[in-house]
Fold each of these.
Amino acid sequence: MKKEKKTRGQLIGELAKLRQRIAELEKAKVELERAEEQLRQTKEVFARAEQIGRFGHWYRDFAENKATWSEGTYRIFSGDPEQLDISYEAFLALVHPSDRELLKSAVEAALAEGEGLDTEYRIIRPDGTVRNIHSFAKVRFDKSGKPVGLDGTVHDITERKQAEDVLKQSEQRFRAVLEAVPDLMLILDAEGRYREVFTSDSDLLYAPADQLLDKTIYDVLPPEDAQQIQEIIDRVLAEGELQKYDYVLKTGGIERWFAGRVTKFRFQNSDCVLWCARDSTERKQMEAALGESEERYRGIVETQTELVCRFLPDGTLTFVNDAICKLLGERREELIGKNFYPYIHPDDRQKTRKNLESLSKENPLGTNEERVIMPDGEVHWWQWINQAFFDEQGSIVELQSVGRDITKRRKAEDSLRKSEAELAAQSRHLEEVNAALKVLLKQREDDKADLEQRLHANVKELVLPYVEKLKNSRLHSDQMTLVGILESNMKEIVSPFVTKLSSRFLSLTPTEIQVASLIKDGKTSKEIASLLNASENTVRSHRTHIRSKLGIKNKKVNMRSYLKSLHD
């Protein structure tokens, strides 16, 4: 069958169509090249984004058990695209052993439920470093709804996880510190909602902490208490300044006083307040007890006749009792706030100041005496016992003094000192007189001794020789006896025994001295009676008196032996 020859017109028409097709192909080529360039640029941008954002994307084909990774994915896993095995089994081998089963379970659950995958896990790179990965994937289905693959991304979140761990540890430390603090700390938002609760003492809370979170103060507290706290929150948020409040709230079954400090606080992108409160119940009770004690103290002090005052280290009076007011002639209101130094005598001010400044924590008590100028110009002496009170740094913050007017005592002491001075002068005069008397007495003793010596010498030289001559002359027996007595008495006069006896026992009579002398010489009472022309009873009476005066009466002491001991 012969082909029909095409006419010239037909050929021209087909040529025109061919040229149009060529033009369309040229245009398509240009558009393809433009699209390829755009795709290349997009890939470059995406690759740069992956590099900057530390993420990558991937696809896993279940039918071919084949995976496709982007450069970013290879970069995260630190693998060479030419060498790294990216099969599912090889991929699981890179996952940290502790996270491997969890990841497999998450993938299986995603495939079974047809939902996406959103999980975190760790990988171990070929160089041994551990990285944290966040992976997100979607299941790809065919027209019949059968899963055919997974499209996913991986994101290296290692730095974020490290920062989160640091932040978590910091928050744990912060929370531990806050929970260990005995105070109560709350974060409340503008609506009075509890955002955070910190305390180590649950009794400070109106309800357990887990029952407070995300509730408002109106849900928890009595209306009047909630309203009071809300007003504080509003004021702090409006003014933005730290506010201090004392308030009462019943917690833990008892009514407590709280000292609160509230400041504006930014929390989770919203304006809140940080509410710090300390249980001040004990302090309030102590203050109340102290107030009562001070009232009792003031009552006692006001009734004292002693002088009582309190003052600052510079001498400014902060309290005076009635006794001081009466002596100085001024009212309490006039004295408080004044400096007491001008009342002190000018010559005593520096001494008083040094005495007060010398007080310390180790020695907080001191005493001093000073002269005070009274309203009438008279000078009185006041004696003080001072006590200093100190702050934590050891500095004096206030002093208290208890004193009394000792003017009479000082005058008496002055008089006593004058009397003592006069007595000392008299004593010195008497000592001088006594010294003179001692000299005179010694002179008298010396004169007496000299007189005795001369008397002894005269008797021996001028009397006894003549008595001896009388004994040798012709005398009858009575005369001889008298001469013997005379000789004996003269010898006794000059005898040391008589001298000792008469000086030691001045109460002996002359006759008793004669009897004592004869007893010493061994004479019997009868012989003594004959010699003295007296009866034996008289002699015995003398003997009794002599024993009594010698202090040997009714004692078993031989009188002759005793008298001889005096002679010796």
Amino acid sequence: MSTDTAGSTPSMDRFESTDTPASKVRDTAEAMLADPDRAPTSAARFAGRMFAETRISPTEATALYGELTDGSQPAADAVESNATDGSDSEDAAGTTASEPAAVDASEGAGNARATDPFEDMASVDEYFEILADSGVYQQLGSIGDRHQCSGNHDFFGWYQTRDTAGRGDGEGRAFALGREFDAIRAKLDRVLYATINYTPLEWFADAWKPYEWGDSRRDFEGDKPTPGYGEIAAIAPFADIDLEDEVKQQRPDGEIPRERIEAALADYIDAFAELAGGREHVFALDSVGGAYVMIAPTATEPIFDTFDRADRFRIFDEFTDRVNEWLGDVDGRIVADSGLEGVFEADKINNTNRLYKAPLSPHSSLDGVVTPVDTADPEYCFTPFGDIDPELLDATHEWARGFTGDHRDAIGSIIDTLFEEHADAGDGWEATLRAWLDADREAEAQQDRPDRPDIDASEIPDDLEVTDEIDVIEAKIEAIDVADLVASTIGKAVDTDTEEGDGIRFDPSWRGSESNQSVFADSKKFADPDGGHGGGGALEFIALHRGIGDVRNPGDAPTGDAYWRAVNALREEGFDIPYFEGKGDRKHADVLRLFEEPESEEEKKRQLARSLFCTGDS
């Protein structure tokens, strides 16, 4: 690898990218700086525009900016050549590991500090301005020009919005991180999030929905405008491995069992590598409060290319459940082997629109930033906010490029592992999933009663007081938004003072939670990762929350009288569920109000009298 001689004209090819020849890089830079309408006001903005136009790395762009704006030549070894001998040219991610070398300040423009965009950074706003100019989130948010992941600011900020003429207070849809980071940054307070799933660009174009402002939140017409299982194109199998709160607070001082955590983190990475069929498909981040381990999202993109929307909904919904089950087994083994029970454990929640802190985002409460982890040799080193430099920015670019690169060949190993009972059904992963689809439809058909067609809850009148169809009762229960139910019953344990997306976290009433947000809920279900992946829908939640019958743990389902008491509990929460009267001459206990808690001795006597007319079935 050659370097320039001190005082000589620098070799242009050291600023060459794999996408653009060195001469074009320099011509573009000089034209940009010479044009008063285009001239950037900082090295960071210059680096961002040069990355967008020529794909030159941010480190080299800032070095070139220092050279061209100061009018003097760089010191001898300020930048190493990237193209002279081809030995250190860019990889598929388009970034390099080279950076300006430290030189004596007397050498003027060659001083690396003069080209470090982070050197004079004074605030989080300025920090994210530098990152916006660098293009790192445009890279993270995009799978080619096909798909985007959703972005989120400060956990509750989901929506890109725009004014509408006469249709509510506006309309909105989920942010597209790769295309709309500037819009996210305008609302960003501190923490940037991304989703583990990516969705076709066409969805973002068509997903706008009108909304009106309710109690400090947007109320959309119908479902919230975030992508569901049928809309997504790819999803990253994912583990959020959390540090216990007290240990988390000790990270800045280094007072943590670092060697054991690094060993456990290596074990999680090994498990994901086995699932994917190779370590090259696995990516990891130090999340400050724990760690993330995941398989690249494009590993699941072949599902989108192969199946129609209805089948994709079934497959991705089942897929995330099976990842959670697999992760539960992996986590149990690693925690037992490491002795880190209660200290460093995975939360086992994969679902569409699952958020994680984006690389380089600051943590919400600790003075650290999210950074890439080397999956070949994981080290768990705290990175303070003030230690960001161009080298780390380049490394994060490389991480994001690899993460959103082509990993489609991992699909076979993943599907054969997670759907192993169908793996011998034919040739390849597609045959495995088609065998599962056939089995799933058959199981569903056996559960259906031919004399009772599916009922859409929207077709049931709100003022319907009684019914003799149990399917009507079940349809009304399934239509309840579980996240809304959680918010209305647990109250202050749920943050509802700002806009929310498709999912929320909350403090469970059935067990303690140091984080006060360890359980997840979306419109269809809740999931408690404590001790396994248990949960359910609205009926299971209300039974668990109130301790109805024998329901004591997530995943327990109320049966018999407990089922009807749970149904009545939902009515008490304000949901319009008709009473079930049964068929025949005798009435069901539900329509006779026998599952209501009597408020007086007189009401208890009336209940006893009504029970004489009951069918006796529950």
Amino acid sequence: MNLVRKLIAVLGLVTGLLLVVLPSAALASSKGSTPDPAATLGVSLPMYTPPTATMRPPGFTSDADQAVAAAEGNREMQALHARQHPMTFEPYAWIGVSWLVDFSYHGKLVAQVVVSRAGHVTGVWTGPLAVALYARGDFATLFGSLWVLAPFTLLFLVPFLDLRRPWRILHLDALVLLSFLVSYLLFDHAKLVAAVWMVYPPLLYLLGRMLWIGGLRRRRRSDQRRPSSPWLSPRLSVRVLLIGLIGLVVARIALSLVSFPVADVGYASVIGAARIAAKQPLYFAGAAHGDTYGPIAYLAYLPFEWLFPWHGKWDYLPSAHAASIVFDLVTVLGLVLLGRRLRAGREGWRLGLALGWAWSACPFTLLALIMHTNDGLIAMLSVLSLLAFASPAARGALLGLAAAAKFAPAALLGLYASHRDRGIKGTIACVVSFAAVVVTSIGMYLPSGGLAQFYNQTIGFQLTRSDVFSAWALHPSLDPLKLAVEIGAVLLAGMVAFFPRRRSMAQVCALAAAITIALQLPAIHWFYYYIVWFMPFVLVALLAGGDEDAAVAEEPVAEVAAPPTTTARAPEPVHAGV
């Protein structure tokens, strides 16, 4: 309990520092600010079409006509124009940055030319990169720097590494998790097509690995009765793990605070919270589609919006900084406590601290944090649902909150409500609490157009959106394969409600990760933030289960484990639903 108090004290200190640092940063960023066109643009990029072609936006020395003339005079554009004629154009002013001139052929965007404020062409983007402004390189400057990426990557390996057993499969698991960096580095250097294809090998490996841990492998009775080997390698002391975890958490918070950018999804949640605070409709017709999430994705930001109100500008946005940091801290603390629950004594603390370490050192959880996305909310609710797994009603309610935020977690309902854990009464309690949370949250903010409008602006938009970051978006001819993958994901989500018959918490996490990954595989739009959604499940499945975890749904671990060799208390039974 002393360790718990120390962790809570550290988190309390960090939270106090946030309350001091963030308001001052917000004040500094808002000094001398004046209203500008961006205040009316919401979550979309601060771009607009000038009312006249000869008007020069503030800070520009060229007008729209001059920007278009410069774009059309570019040699690459002249060659493209010779092949695709006639083309239409549309100039946009990116406030304080540059002109963006779009060229379309038969209604399809084929090129975008970047023109400086002085009227000089600085870049021509064609093909998928004409559409994907975010994929033109240098996506997150701070994250991509070697002094940030290298140490976090190496530290991520620590909980998995065992030099005495170099061929341990956990080493491969850790390398596969890090292999998403291959895709990201290609993406960060504007190699979009290669980056997209390099996402699928690690996703498919993790899908197979999670299914294997989750129940595909057949266990022999002799395997269940043999003592499990040490799960953590190397066997670092609890003190070392605690100090290392605190250092990682402090480093993450510092990087988050000094990182200015806020992803569009972070802006969307803050703006939605501001609309709720102002008693405005949460769902409305807007070109930016910032209202594409469930109400919880906005309600969760309401306390932070009250503390640090949004002023209608693309600025430091302290409310998004504070929200992402708090979500991250709760996730780390939840993983530590979850490890303590899964193992007895100091081994439980070692497992929990290793889980927190792996999360904190993971490069992609860091990316989501320093870009201040709302994806950390899903990870936090997932971890809390695991902590509350002993209560079907509680885990159903927490899953309902996640589903009412970003919808996809609803696919885990079959797994969470399985009658294998607490019988039919447990299933009913889980489903009822899940439905109560989802129906209540959506009902409170249902738009005037009813469920049809809500669906069209949320799930309907996400299912039909146009994008380039997926194999399906780059190659529409793969639609039959995409349909098959979708059917497989649906079947998997339903099957886990009944199989396997016996499962531990590590297996539950493995199956939850498998379902989440299966849903992401056929997505039209995928991005590295989505790794955060399944990362807590994967870490628990690997570090608490891996190849050594025994089935325990009907047979307590205490009955099959080897007798303790010390005077410490024996390992406690670990049941998925107890």
Amino acid sequence: MNLKRILFVATALLFSLVGQASHQRGGSIRYTNVTNANTPSGFNDYYIEIELLRDPSGITMPAILSVTFTRRPIGNYSATNYNFPQIGSYTTLSQACGATGTVESYIYGDTVSLVEYGAYDIRYANCCRNANINNIANASSQGNVVLATLVSGKPARNYNNSPTFSSSVKSFPVGQATFDICGPDPDGDSLYIELITPHNNTTNSANIYPVTYATGYSLSEPFGDSASFFIDTLNRTITVQSSIQQICVIAFKVSEYVKDTAGVWRYYGSIERDEQYYITAPISGTAGDTLEIVNAGTPTGNPSDSVLVDLNFNAYPVMFDVDSLQMVLSHASKSAYVQSVEITTSNDQLLLRTDVPLAPGNWTLHIGESADSLFLYSQCGNTLDDSLTFYVDIPIDTNYIVGPDSAYTGVSEFYHLYDISYVDSVNYSVTNGFWWNPTSAPNDTVEITWTVPPAKLEASVFIGDTIIVLTKEITVNGIGLGENDLSEITLAPQPSNSHVVLLGLVEPMEYKLLNTLGEVVAMGKVGPNEQISLEHLSSGSYYLELFDAERRRNWVLLKQ
């Protein structure tokens, strides 16, 4: 393609329009900055592209389009023809949501050079519209107009790129459908979307007039009083609902705004686009694709108050008032409520916020309709009514038991779980040691006195219907510092069937007798040469702990 350059200095080039009766269904102008090292100083290069949508029943579209460029604010430039060639062949687009028929998409484009800090009105007009259009009076005598204002640069930024418009066909059976208006701005500019009256121009004159609406139609009711529409400016979509068959034309103006170096919002261009909507006869069964949940889960797979939901097709929010009947999360023993829902950067993914982090285990998500409202629709008006079970992982590993990995014989150490937020209960089991306060309550810390190696602490963690067994190996070392001055005391007789005596004890001290389950079976104070009775105990192994405020020592004794 040859590079075409338009130099706007004291005059401008005006491109004449060749009128064609083509049943044009709409179109749009797009511009992309392609400035490079070969661009003359003081200019910006832009690739200008025009897409036109045509009914196949119309006459043949031209191979070359003639358009009009007018530089602001001077105006009154002389006219000079400039031609945009067609790029490739046309593309056939299928109707949406089960409607029959096709539409042809034609692309025209070339590169132009524009003054660096200029603003240009770009206009293409064509005669005539489809005579069967319902919302425009005498439609066959009124033309189509596609407009754009390109701000080629301002002190805030010396380039510009337009938002993009999809080539989707605006056609659906009687009922409801949702369509994209445009994509996000590639420069990150803020977009302002407004509904405007379609333009009428059949001669490419400088005067552009609004179309005359047919009786029963207006700017506020472009689909008539038997239909309704909703424009979602956040997601740049329009949802139309019509109970009758009809052909209607609406127009959008999408304006770009950007902050300058002083933080003031500045107008940076706009595109005005006609769109023709074909609302066809109802079809049997469900129109279009059924909207379903294909995947769900927390962002990391671990407990979180966020849930990402992937859908098989785009979903469109008709309203954002979410209640517990529309989105239900169920779990075997836990509960959580969806508080808000967002569409992410992709319309086929939802982000749910819950009132509490989801506990580990299996969760079932059901999205449907409640008695008072509907929440999400597919493009073709089908509601999202589906369920899916997903798993939230248990963030537990072998380091989940917090406490020392090594201990001295006879010295008590304390152990607890790192996080008990999602734990229903925990049971501890000790090898070669005994505990003082065994409990099934997860909030308590367990105190363990280790005896001889090899020693081990096991915790059976109950979370819903899941049991996780955690193990912590303990290295047991000799005599602890706290019992150095008790090291000369010995326990006799061993084994015994009636009593024991602590030989070498020189002052009264507290003692406890515990069974192998860690239960205290006897306690009291014992002095030098005093006996500790075992007669009330059953035969078996027991733990004897001797202690005061600063010292502690333990023995294993055998009752016969």
